[in-house]
Design goal:
Distance between the termini: 23 Å
Structural class: alpha/beta
Number of helices: 10
Order of helices and strands: EHEHHEHEHEEHEHEHEHHE
Shape: elongated
Strand order of the largest sheet: 3-2-1-4-5-10-9-6-7-8
Radius of gyration: 20 Å
């Protein structure tokens, strides 16, 4: 059965890096990729309306170039990778991003969304652009966010952060386990604490997590630190991790990662893809 992966694009270079990463990540898997673009209402500007021929609708005139662009992108990807296991479908929507996003994910029964961390406008120094952040926070499917200009590297080491306060369900790890299996990777479960022992509830949640991951190589690592992000960031850097997995559950690391204010220096230095596993 083919995986279904949504590839949102605003035709920026960052979106193309994310697309290339997704295609290479699942190189040996049968995948239906959906190249998807949203035509915003603000696209309809005065010059477009004035230039419309009497026989043409404003809608057709405005989106004709976008249709050509997304079909051209499709042909370029097919020519670039030439992978018979992959098929590509193009979609254009006219709506606000989040509404259209939720609709296409539900309609096509999407398994995974792969997005660049920033769009064509990079004015704010937040770690993720607004569309990516909204998708991650509200989507019921996993979202893989790929840093700008990041090129694919074989995945052998995956980090997953947890505070053991959540009793996880097995289906949460469907995509991450698949990545582990097809790339023969190992998952390191990172727990940051500040000198406190695990509660009985946390111990049970850790045991449950060990059971869920029993089919794949994994190990547990405790990091004693008051700075959750710094500890995780340093571990990732020092151990050459290629993918960071988190959940969109309430967690200090998640909260700091997606703050809407300008991020601190260390946040801006996240240099590997982040898989946000929706609960």
């Amino acid at each position: 059965m083919k995986m279904k992966i949504l590839l949102p694009t605003d035709f920026s270079s960052n979106a193309k890096y994310a697309i290339d990463y997704a295609v290479q990540l699942f190189e040996n898997e049968k995948v239906e990729f959906y190249l998807w673009h949203v035509v915003r209402a603000s696209t309809y500007i005065t010059d477009d309306i004035i230039s419309v021929k009497p026989s043409a609708s404003i809608y057709d005139s405005v989106i004709s170039s976008t249709k050509n662009a997304i079909e051209g992108l499709k042909e370029d990807i097919i020519a670039q990778f030439n992978n018979p296991k992959h098929t590509f479908t193009t979609r254009l929507d006219y709506d606000n991003f989040l509404d259209a996003f939720n609709q296409v994910v539900a309609l096509e029964n999407i398994d995974l969304i792969v997005m660049g961390t920033k769009g064509s406008s990079n004015l704010e120094k937040t770690i993720f652009g607004s569309n990516t952040m909204h998708a991650i926070q509200q989507c019921l499917r996993p979202v893989l966010a790929v840093p700008n200009a990041y090129t694919f590297k074989p995945i052998k080491k995956i980090a997953f952060t947890t505070n053991y306060n959540t009793h996880y369900q097995a289906n949460l790890f469907k995509i991450s386990k698949k990545i582990v299996q097809i790339h023969h990777a190992e998952t390191t479960i990172l727990h940051v604490f500040s000198g406190t022992e695990l509660t009985e509830s946390q111990k049970q949640n850790k045991k449950n997590l060990d059971t869920i991951l029993r089919e794949i190589p994994h190990r547990f690592v405790d990091l004693d630190s008051d700075e959750v992000f710094t500890a995780i960031h340093n571990y990732i850097e020092e151990n050459n991790m290629q993918l960071l997995c988190i959940t969109n559950a309430k967690h200090r690391f998640f909260d700091r990662l997606f703050v809407k204010t300008h991020v601190k220096k260390e946040l801006a230095n996240i240099a590997i893809p982040v898989l946000v596993m929706a609960r």
